[in-house]
Each structure stands twice: as structure tokens, then as C-alpha cells.
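Budget justification, computational time. The allocation requested in the original proposal was used primarily to generate C-alpha cells for proteins on the priority list. As evidence of use, we reproduce two of the resulting records. The first is shown immediately below.
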Amino acid sequence: MNDKLTTIIEQLKSLTLLEAAELVKEIETTFGVDTSISAAPVMVAAAGADGGSGSEEQTEFEISLTEVPSDKKIAILKVVRNVTGLGLKESKEIVDNVPKILKEGISKVEIDAIQKELEEAGAKVAVK
């Protein structure tokens, strides 16, 4: 691999999960691609052709904050503010009044990043 690619790979390794999710969204927008496309829809279509259920893979998700331990409240509040872009007052209201939906209609990549970040801060979440 050339030096340019090695440098890019090293920079990617230093990203947080949320930054990586934002990078994916920016790449999708800039280049007009959809990174959520995988082999699974092809397999679902094939299963439908030979008697399978034919149901489609879920592409949009929502994440809810379900439990906030009192000793982890500040760390979780910081993550909620970062994820939602809300102010301190609005984020505190979410953290204090669980269960609450944080985000809706987001991709699998972004949901995974948010879920991991919240769980690392000590929160319990539900993904639908």
C-alpha cells in the first residue's frame, strides 16, 4: 500500500464511532452512494423467489434511552448532547425523563455508533 493510503488508514483508526458515522454520511452525500446496501437484500430477494418470506431488510432505525444510572448521568448527558445537537436544558430533560426516543430514521451504521457510545457512558438503550 502506498504512503497516502497508509496515512488515510491511520487517520481513520483514530476516529470515534460517531465521527466515523458522520464520515460515512458525508461520503454518501458527496459521492451519491448508499453504504447501507449489502448482500442481504439480494439474499432476501432470492429467498422470496423460492418460497421465503420476502420481507425486506430494515434500513431506518430509532434509538431510545431506556435507563440512566444516577452515577453516570453527567457522562450520558454529554453523549446525548453530542448525538442530538440539543442544548443542555433539552438534553437534561431527556436524561431525567427516560424512556425517551433520541433519534429516529437513522442508518444502521449511525445507530451502532450511537448505541456503543451511550452504552460506554453507562446508559441502557433500545433500538427499533
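The second record produced under the same allocation is shown here.
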Amino acid sequence: MRLAGRLAALAILGVTAGCRLGPLVPDEPGASANVLPKDAMIPTVDKNADLTMQIVLNDGLDTMTLMTNKNVIVRGTTGSTTDGTQVHFWAFGDADRAPTPVYVFGTGDPMSVSFTPLADHPPLVETVPGDVDYEPIHTIFNVRVTDKYDGQKITTHGALSDAIDLKLVEAPVAISVFVNRPIVRPGLRLEVAPGTSVAPTPVYAHGYLVDSFPLGGMLGRQPNPRGLLPTSQVSFLREAGKPTFDMAHPIFQATIPTAPPGMNPNYTPLSQIVYVDLAPSKMVTDIHKDGDLFMRMASGDIMNATSVVAQFTISSKLTDLQLQFAEGAQ
């Protein structure tokens, strides 16, 4: 029900955003308590202890690991892609196929590359970790500001609705593009190279500034014409006689994109977990790429396992595992 309900809501918003968020009466509204003046000081989320704790408990990150690493989200360093390339990756916990909106305010044609995000107004998200519909992967809605806009701050979904009524902005336009932009607890940094980490990028949510990491750069902006997010598989291996799967050496079906996507996505961080029991005498370190485990059809589906696999289980579990596309970049 959660997935179906969110997809229905996104479909309505994408097709009839003006109806859902626009004025319900012909009268010209005069003001809004939700839309804040341009000189308003927006609090950071750590000023709200309850909301901060909600994010801490639900952002998919392990508190003890963060404490050990001095609040740096460290990279996994022993993953391999389908072509055998060793890769770095970040893990942000459970996810599903229905992305949540991120509203980007700017000028120009919302459906064109000429659309330019405002430098002084962060994007707006509706949900944060712990909210029922939150997902770390977001679908992008471009929101064009009008000539009436004068730096006002739109920090809640209610403010966005009022800003449309006040004709400060136009109705959001779904551009059928998704981006991996996990929201995280305050005070973290993201490792991008040995000894090097980057600060988060703020977004507005629930009237606060919250921390996020937009991942993948321009190659991370992927088309999503069908609404549901695409998935690829990631395999976790277990050696014969071992009680647990090795979570530190994922074998990715995905590869790092080397060019912008066309009409269809050429990368997704949304990973369906495959649990693989290796044949006797086979070691995790013997496996270097997805092809060592499986023969796949042109569609990418598994056709057969190779002789190194004793058995495998394709789970229903989906997780946000983002490959690092380039050293030093997030």
C-alpha cells in the first residue's frame, strides 16, 4: 500500500501539479505565513531535537561506525562491478522503487537544459528519514520563479502551495529524472578519497535546513520515464561452512557510467540483493566480477549460475548502494 499510494501521488503531482498545489479559488491571495521573507533566518535541523533523533534513527547509517570514523561516512573499498573493475561505494540503507520529490527552484524553461537553479535557495524535500514516504532517491521537479519572486524562502510543502497561490512560482514540473540524494543526520561528512571528505549540501525540509549528499554529479541524474525506479543486482557471498555472508565485498551488476544517459537510464544505485553460497573450496577473493557468478540474458536477468555457485537466492530486499564514479568526487 505504501508503494502504490506514493506512486499514485507522484503520478497526480507530475501530471496535474498545478491542480494539486495551485489556487482553489479565483481570488487573488495577499499573503502567507508559510512563505518566509528573504531575510528570514532558517534554523538548522539540530535545533529540533525530536526531528534530529528521527533522522538519526532512520538515515540508514550506523551510529557506532560513524563515531569510530569521526562522523565521516566512509567508503566501501572492495566492491567490484560487472566488468571486474574494483570500485568504491557508499551505503545508505533500505530503499524502494518509488522515489520521493525534490523541488528545485530556478529560472528558465523547466523542461529544458536552460533551466538554472537559484544559487541562494536550496531545494525543498517533502520527507526526511523516518517519515512514512521517505526515500533516499528523489525524482526532480523543477519550479520556475516568476517576476513576483523577490528572494522569499519556501521551506515547507505548505509554503510551496502558498507560493503558487501568490504567483511567486509556477506549478512544479516533473522532468522524469531521478537523483540519489540521501538525507542524513547533521554534522557528517562524506569520504571521497583517502583523508579527504566533503561537507553536505543543505536542503529545506519541514521548515529546517537539513543535510544531504547529492551523489553522482551530472552522470547521477538519470532518466526515469516509467515512474518506478530501475534496479540492478548486487551479490553478497558466503563461503562454504561460514555462518554469515560477506557484506564487505559486494559484486555489482552495475557499472560506472562513462557518458550521459540517453532516453533510458544507464545507472541506478537501487540494488536488489542476491545472496550467493559459494561452492566448496571457493573463496570470496576468488570472485572478481558478476560474470564469475552468473550468465545473464540480454535483459540482464540471470539465466544460469556458474560452477563456483552452490546456490543463490534473489531476495526482495532493495538497498541504496551508490558507486563512486570518480576519485575525489561525490
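A brief technical remark on that second record: The longest strand covers residues 309-323.
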